[in-house]
Recover the amino acids of this structure.
C-alpha cells in the first residue's frame, strides 16, 4: 500500500459503498461535469510518493549551514525558551482555524486578547490588532490607513527605515497612487534628518514614517516629532524591526505616535529563513474603525461569564467586501501566540534585562572593534543591538574571507545603500558570547588584510 | 481570590495579567560575560522607558499551565471533524512539523550568503516547479504570506502588465459567489468592482461576461471550483471572452483541493492563480495563520513577479533582484519559508498519484455527505458537487430554527460547525467541506447527527436555540462586544 | 412596524421630516429591524455637503454595515451626538431619539421625489 494512504483512510470497500450510496458507478462519474477535453490526460510530473523515513532523510540533506552569526537587519537570533515550542505544538492551537465559533475557540481568543494587551503595553499605544503578515506589510498597511484617515496622499519616508520595508510600502502605494518623499539620514549620525523632514512637512502629508531603532540600529530621537506632524494635520507612523529594544526604550506611544507598526520576530519566533514572522500593529482608540486586521474583544456569555469574541468585524473583507479597511484575512495567529508566551515568560524584569544584555554586548563589540586599525564606527548616534562599521577594503571580500573561519561577520550594506560601500551592519545579541565577539574581531582584522 | 467552582477539567482561568507575583520569573538568560553597561550612559534618558507597566510576572510552570488550559478550550482538526467549507481543514501531518523544526531550517538567517543555503533555494525552486505543474502555469512566486496577499500581488501584476501595454483599465469583474477577499483586494488595488450575477445553476453565465466585458475591464476574478462547490463549466469560454478584449483571468485557488491531477487551471485559460498552502497542501491554519499564498502565473506575466525570484544556473541557485518590470516587494525577505517547507514535504509524501487520490476522495466525501443530508436539509443546487456542498436552513424555518442554531447544536455533539451564511447568494447557507482525510465512519456519524438535529428542530427546537451547552462558554454577547469595545486588559477593570 | 404619516421616505429606507428650510433624517423602522442590533453610527462632520444619493455615513450592526444615503441635497447642520454612546436608540426609537442628522436643503423640490408612507409601505410589500 502506498505511504500516502496513512493520510487518506478510504479502503476499496469504503469507496465501493460510498459510490453505491451516491448512486454512481465510479469515481470517474463524480467528475462528469468536467468536459473530457479539459481533463488532464496524463499524470502530473512530480516526484514521490516518499515514505516518512525517506522524506525525513531527504529533508535533512537540504538544510542550510549554520555559522557563528553577526547578522540582523530585521531578523534576529535570540534565545527561544523551550516552553514556547512545546506549548505551540499543542495541536488544539495549531490545527484550529480562525476563531469564528467562539464557544469552542476560547483558547485562541483569550491568547489573542492577551497578545493585544501586551502589544499595547510594549508600544505604549491604546489598541492593537490580532497581528499582520510581517513588519514590512504592517508598516505598509499603516501608511494606507493614514491616507484613509487624513484623506491625503503624500508620505514622508525616512531612508533609515528598513530598505525592504520601504520597498513594500512603495509596492502597496503604487497601487493606491500615492506619492512618497524620501527623507535622508544624516551622514555622520545615521539618524533621520529632522531639518529636511521639517522642510518637507506640509498640509498634503498624510503620514511621516520613521523607524526606531532604525535599520542602522540607531535610536531615533522622537522628541517633538509628533507635535510637528500633528500641527500640519498628518499622522506619525513609527516603525520598528527589533521589538526587544522596547524592553528599554521609551515606546513611540509616549512620544505621541498615531500608529506603531513593526516586526515581532524577536519575541520567540525562529528565524526560519525570513518567515513566518509577526506583524505588529497598534494605534489610538479614535482610529479603531479605520484599523486593518482582526480584533478580539471581551464580552459575557448567556450566563454572564467572561468570554472573548472576534469583534468590530464589519471593517473586514468578509463583511464589507469592497469597502473593507484592508483585504487581510489570514494573519499570523500562531506567531502571535509565540510572542505572547515569550513575553509571559520574560515578564516585566526579564524583557528589560534581555534588552540590557543586548545593549551591553553591542557596546562590548563596539569597544573591541574600535581598537582595530582600519575599523571605524560609522555613526555617532546611540544604538541598540546593531551598528554600522566602516572598514577598509571591499566588504564583500571581507565577509567572504570571514566565512572561511565559519563566521558570518555582518551584512554588506552596499546592496541597499550604494553610498555605504565600505560598511557592514553588525548585530550582536545575547546569543553572541564574549569569546565569540573576540574571535569575530580577530578574524575581521585578518580578513581586511 | 477567585471563587472556587466545580468546573471540572474545563477550569476557569484568569488572564495572564491577573496571575503571578512580584519578582517571579519564567526565563533564564545566558551568563553575563561582558560588563553590564549603564543604559543612561549610552542612550539619552528621555529616550528610555520607565517600567513595563502591566507586564506579567510568572514562573515557568504557571505559564505552561495557563496556555495548556487555554489550548483545552480550543477545537482543532486533531480534536475532531472540522467540515468548515472553503477552508479545507484536512489533517496536518506531524512529520511536517518535525521538519520545520530541523536546526538547518529553523535557525537560518534570511541574509545568509546564498552559498550556505543552496539546499533551501533548491527546495523553494522545487516547490515553485511542483506548484506550476499542478496548476498548469509557467512560473510561481512564493512570496505572498496568505491567500489574500497572493490576490493583491496578482492584481498589482495585472495593473503593471496593462501599464506596460500602455493601458489603464479601471474595472474588475467579480461574481456574486466570490470570497470577500476578492472584492476587497480589487478595491485595495484601486479597481472598481463590477458584480456578475451567477445563474440558476450556480455558475457564471458567459453571456453576462460578454455583456460586461470591455476595454475598461482589466480582469475577471473567478473561484474554481466556485464557492458553491460547483465546477464553473463555462470557464474556458469565459476566459476566451475576457482575453479577446485584452483582459486577464485571475483565479482564486482556495478550492484547488478538488482538482489536483484531474484538471489544470492553466489549461482552462486562467492567467494567474493563488494557492492557499494552508488549505490544499496540508499546512496548519494555526488558529488564523501563518498561511502562505503563492501565486502561479502564465508566461506573459513573469516579468512582473515580485522580487526576488530564484534562478537556477547550472547546479547553483541564486536570488535575482534585477528585474526592472517587477511590481516590487510584497513582504520582507522571501515568503513564509517555515510554511513552504511543510507544503514541499507534503507534496513529496503524496506524489502525483497521492495528490490525485486526495482530490478524488475529497470529492467522493463531499458527494457522500450531500447524498446523506439531502432529505433533511434543503439543497439549493441539486447537482453533483466537487469538494464541498452547500445546504440551507429553509426546511427548518417553519420551526424558527436558523443556520446559526444548527451550527451551535453541532458543537454539543462534538463537531466543528460548517461555514455558515456564506456564500452570500444562498440565504442561510451551511457550507460543508469534509476533505479527503475524513473516514466513511466519521462522515456517517456526522450525517446521523445532522439528521438527529433536523428532528430536534421539529420536536424540541429550544435545544437548538439554547445550544451550545456543553462548552467552556455559552453563546456570547457580540452586541455588547461591539458597542463597548474592550480590546485589552486594564488593571482597574479586572474582574 | 410603524411608518408615521407626517414623514417622507426614500427607497433606501431613510425617513425625512420636513422642517421648512431644513430636514431631519433617520432610518426607518424597517431598516433598523433588518440591521438588528446597531452597534455604531458613523456620521459626517457638520458643515459637510452632500448631493442627493451620496453616502453620508454608515450604520453598523454586528454583522452588517449599511450606508446612509442622503435623501436630498444639502449641508449637515446638526448631528445626533447621543448616538455615540447610545447607538441602540436607532433600534428602540428610530423616529425619535434615534434620528441621525439635520440637513439644510439646497433644492426644496427634491422633497417631491420622496415617497409617502403608503408608497413606501407599498415598496416594502413588493420587496418581501
Amino acid at each position: 500500500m502506498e505511504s500516502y494512504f496513512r493520510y487518506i483512510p478510504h479502503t476499496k470497500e469504503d469507496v465501493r459503498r460510498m459510490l453505491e450510496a451516491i448512486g454512481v458507478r465510479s469515481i470517474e462519474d463524480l467528475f462528469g461535469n468536467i468536459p473530457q477535453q479539459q481533463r488532464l490526460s496524463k499524470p502530473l510530473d512530480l516526484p514521490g510518493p516518499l515514505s516518512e523515513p525517506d522524506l525525513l532523510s531527504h529533508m535533512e540533506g537540504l538544510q542550510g549551514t549554520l555559522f557563528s552569526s553577526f547578522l540582523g537587519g530585521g531578523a534576529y537570533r535570540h534565545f527561544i525558551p523551550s516552553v514556547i515550542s512545546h506549548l505551540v505544538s499543542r495541536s488544539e492551537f495549531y490545527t484550529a482555524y480562525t476563531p469564528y465559533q467562539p464557544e469552542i475557540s476560547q483558547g485562541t481568543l483569550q491568547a489573542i486578547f492577551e497578545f493585544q494587551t501586551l502589544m499595547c503595553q510594549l508600544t505604549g499605544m491604546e489598541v492593537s490588532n490580532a497581528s499582520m503578515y510581517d513588519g514590512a506589510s504592517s508598516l505598509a498597511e499603516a501608511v494606507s490607513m493614514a491616507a484613509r484617515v487624513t484623506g491625503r496622499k503624500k508620505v514622508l519616508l525616512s531612508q533609515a527605515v528598513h530598505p525592504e520595508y520601504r520597498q513594500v510600502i512603495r509596492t502597496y502605494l503604487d497601487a493606491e497612487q500615492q506619492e512618497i518623499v524620501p527623507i535622508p539620514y544624516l551622514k555622520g549620525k545615521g539618524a533621520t534628518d529632522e531639518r529636511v523632514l521639517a522642510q518637507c512637512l506640509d498640509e498634503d502629508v498624510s503620514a511621516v514614517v520613521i523607524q526606531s531603532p532604525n535599520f542602522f540600529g540607531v535610536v531615533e530621537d522622537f522628541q517633538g516629532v509628533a507635535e510637528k506632524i500633528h500641527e500640519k494635520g498628518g499622522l506619525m507612523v513609527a516603525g520598528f524591526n527589533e521589538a526587544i529594544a522596547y524592553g528599554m526604550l521609551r515606546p513611540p506611544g509616549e512620544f505621541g505616535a498615531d500608529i506603531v507598526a513593526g516586526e515581532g520576530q524577536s519575541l520567540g519566533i525562529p528565524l526560519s529563513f525570513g518567515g513566518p514572522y509577526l506583524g505588529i500593529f497598534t494605534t489610538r482608540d479614535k482610529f479603531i474603525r479605520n484599523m486593518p486586521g482582526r480584533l478580539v474583544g471581551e464580552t459575557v456569555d448567556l450566563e454572564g461569564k467572561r468570554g472573548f469574541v472576534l469583534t468590530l468585524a464589519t471593517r473586514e473583507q468578509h463583511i464589507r467586501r469592497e469597502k473593507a479597511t484592508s483585504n487581510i484575512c489570514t494573519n499570523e495567529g500562531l506567531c502571535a501566540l509565540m510572542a505572547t508566551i515569550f513575553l509571559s515568560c520574560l515578564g516585566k524584569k526579564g524583557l528589560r534585562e534581555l534588552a540590557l544584555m543586548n545593549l551591553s554586548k553591542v557596546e562590548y563589540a563596539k569597544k573591541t572593534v574600535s581598537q582595530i586599525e582600519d575599523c571605524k564606527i560609522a555613526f555617532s548616534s546611540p544604538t541598540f543591538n546593531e551598528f554600522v562599521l566602516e572598514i577598509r577594503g571591499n566588504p564583500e571580500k571581507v565577509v567572504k574571507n570571514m566565512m572561511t573561519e565559519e563566521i558570518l561577520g555582518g551584512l554588506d550594506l552596499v546592496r541597499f545603500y550604494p553610498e555605504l560601500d565600505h560598511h557592514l551592519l553588525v548585530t550582536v545579541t545575547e546569543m553572541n558570547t564574549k569569546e565569540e565577539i573576540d574571535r569575530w574581531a580577530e578574524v575581521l582584522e585578518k580578513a581586511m588584510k | 481570590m477567585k471563587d472556587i467552582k466545580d468546573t471540572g477539567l474545563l477550569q476557569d482561568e484568569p488572564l495572564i495579567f491577573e496571575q503571578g507575583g512580584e519578582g517571579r520569573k519564567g526565563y533564564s538568560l545566558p551568563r553575563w560575560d561582558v560588563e553590564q553597561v549603564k543604559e543612561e550612559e549610552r542612550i539619552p534618558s528621555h529616550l528610555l522607558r520607565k517600567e513595563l507597566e502591566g507586564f506579567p510576572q510568572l514562573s515557568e510552570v504557571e505559564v505552561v499551565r495557563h496556555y495548556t488550559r487555554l489550548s483545552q478550550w480550543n477545537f482543532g482538526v486533531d480534536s475532531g471533524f472540522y467540515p468548515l467549507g472553503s477552508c479545507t481543514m484536512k489533517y496536518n501531518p506531524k512529520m511536517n512539523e518535525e521538519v520545520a523544526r530541523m536546526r538547518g531550517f529553523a535557525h537560518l538567517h534570511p541574509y545568509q550568503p546564498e552559498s550556505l543555503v543552496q539546499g533551501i533555494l533548491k527546495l523553494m525552486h522545487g516547490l515553485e516547479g511542483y506548484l506550476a505543474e499542478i496548476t498548469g502555469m509557467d512560473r510561481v512566486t512564493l512570496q505572498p504570506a496568505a491567500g489574500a496577499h497572493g490576490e493583491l500581488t496578482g492584481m498589482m501584476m495585472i495593473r503593471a502588465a496593462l501599464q506596460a501595454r500602455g493601458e489603464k483599465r479601471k474595472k474588475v469583474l467579480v461574481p456574486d459567489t466570490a470570497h470577500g477577499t476578492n472584492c476587497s483586494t480589487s478595491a485595495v488595488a484601486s479597481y472598481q468592482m463590477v458584480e456578475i450575477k451567477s445563474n440558476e445553476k450556480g455558475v457564471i453565465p458567459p453571456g453576462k461576461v460578454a455583456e460586461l466585458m470591455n476595454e475598461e475591464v482589466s480582469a475577471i476574478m473567478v473561484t474554481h471550483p466556485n464557492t458553491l462547490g460547483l465546477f464553473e463549466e463555462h470557464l474556458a469560454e469565459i476566459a476566451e471572452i475576457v482575453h479577446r478584449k485584452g483582459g486577464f483571468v485571475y483565479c482564486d485557488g482556495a478550492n484547488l483541493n478538488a482538482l489536483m491531477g484531474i484538471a489544470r487551471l492553466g489549461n482552462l485559460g486562467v492567467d494567474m492563480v493563488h494557492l492557499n498552502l494552508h488549505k490544499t497542501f496540508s499546512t496548519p491554519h494555526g488558529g488564523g495563520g501563518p498561511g502562505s499564498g503563492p501565486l502561479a502565473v502564465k508566461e506573459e506575466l513573469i516579468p512582473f513577479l515580485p522580487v526576488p525570484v530564484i534562478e537556477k544556473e547550472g547546479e547553483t541557485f541564486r536570488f535575482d533582484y534585477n528585474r526592472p518590470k517587477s511590481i516590487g516587494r510584497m513582504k520582507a525577505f522571501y515568503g513564509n519559508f517555515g510554511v513552504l517547507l511543510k507544503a514541499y514535504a507534503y507534496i513529496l509524501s503524496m506524489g502525483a498519484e497521492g495528490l490525485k487520490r486526495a482530490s478524488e476522495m475529497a470529492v467522493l466525501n463531499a458527494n457522500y455527505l450531500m447524498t446523506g443530508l439531502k432529505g433533511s436539509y434543503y439543497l439549493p443546487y441539486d447537482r453533483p458537487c466537487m469538494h464541498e456542498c452547500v445546504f440551507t436552513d429553509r426546511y427548518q424555518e417553519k420551526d424558527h430554527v436558523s443556520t446559526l442554531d444548527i451550527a451551535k447544536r453541532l458543537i454539543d455533539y462534538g463537531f466543528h460547525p460548517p461555514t455558515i451564511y456564506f456564500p452570500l447568494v444562498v440565504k442561510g447557507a451551511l457550507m460543508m467541506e469534509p476533505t479527503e482525510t475524513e473516514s466513511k465512519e466519521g462522515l456517517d456519524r456526522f450525517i446521523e447527527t445532522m439528521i438527529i438535529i433536523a428532528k430536534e428542530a421539529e420536536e424540541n427546537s429550544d435545544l437548538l436555540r439554547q445550544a451550545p451547552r456543553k462548552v467552556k462558554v455559552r453563546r456570547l454577547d457580540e452586541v455588547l462586544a461591539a458597542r463597548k469595545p474592550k480590546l485589552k486588559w486594564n488593571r482597574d477593570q479586572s474582574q | 412596524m410603524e411608518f408615521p404619516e407626517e414623514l417622507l421616505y426614500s427607497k433606501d429606507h431613510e425617513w425625512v421630516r420636513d422642517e421648512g428650510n431644513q430636514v431631519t433624517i433617520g432610518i426607518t423602522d424597517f431598516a433598523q429591524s433588518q440591521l438588528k442590533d446597531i452597534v455604531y453610527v458613523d456620521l459626517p462632520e457638520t458643515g459637510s455637503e452632500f448631493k442627493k444619493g451620496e453616502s453620508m455615513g454608515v450604520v453598523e450592526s454586528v454583522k452588517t454595515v449599511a450606508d446612509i444615503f442622503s435623501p436630498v441635497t444639502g449641508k449637515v447642520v446638526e448631528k445626533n451626538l447621543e448616538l455615540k454612546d447610545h447607538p441602540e436608540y436607532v433600534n428602540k426609537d428610530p423616529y425619535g431619539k434615534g434620528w441621525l442628522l439635520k440637513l439644510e436643503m439646497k433644492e426644496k423640490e427634491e422633497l417631491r421625489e420622496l415617497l409617502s408612507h403608503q408608497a413606501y409601505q407599498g415598496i416594502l410589500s413588493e420587496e418581501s
Summary: Chain B touches chain C at residues 421, 478-479, 482-483 (CB under 8 Å). Residues 8-72 of chain B form one domain. The mean pLDDT of chain B is 95. Chain B has three domains: 8-72, 95-349, 353-480.
